[in-house]
Amino acid sequence: MATRLVQIAMKAQDDSALGRFWAEALGWGIASEEPGVTNLEPEGVTYPDPSAIYIDILAVPDPKTVKNRVHVDLATTSTAHQADLVTRLQALGATPADVGQGDVPWTVLADPEGNEFCVLEPREIYRDTGPMAAVVVDCADPRAMARFWGEAMDWTVHKVTDDQAVLRSAEGVGPYLEFLRTPDEKTGWNRVHLDLRPYPGDDQAAEVARLRGFGATDLDIGQGDVPWTVLADPEGNEFCVLTPL
């Protein structure tokens, strides 16, 4: 048994407006499965597909108040592409963001609801990821995160150091999942979280039990009676285990 990372869920006060921004940023299609939920996916790809980490934007009443512990990195193919992308994103409503990055070759922006993201300089490792290079999670212990998430999913662990852990789909396609050591402590619910999905024919309850065995804990965030299960990883990051598909 195994799960795979299929999407990230992003909270927003205006899911439709934020969905339009990210659809334009990524060049993806946009749809709404129900009021208050906006789905983003690459054109011509059938969900779920390992070549992409999809985005669900969920309407919530509360505004963003602290730096996100989960963010998206965007890939570029040249310095000119990076500069053009930054200009285009700012025209769409992105603003420069200072998260203490200092003098770095990538550009940190915030989307219209304040969610931080990075437009990376060209890097060979991201040449085949598509527009989204990586989903990045702040953490205290990348090695511990690599152990948990390496067991939780069938993704391949590519790199583990004291400062960074890097995973990617076992099929060698799509964005990376990266855990970066930071000194910041987690406060409150994450505004962006990971969604895992078991494979067709697997048992959701059995997968949840397996994840608990690796250190996941049950979490009540007011979700009520829903078909997915909300858990937290060993550092308290919320994630959802969806139904098999």
TrEMBL record:
CDD domains noted in UniProt: VOC (cd06587)
PROSITE patterns in the cross-refs: VOC (PS51819)
Xref: Pfam families? Glyoxalase_6 (PF18029)
Q: VOC domain spans which residues?
A: 131-244
Q: Spell out the protein name for this chain.
A: VOC family protein
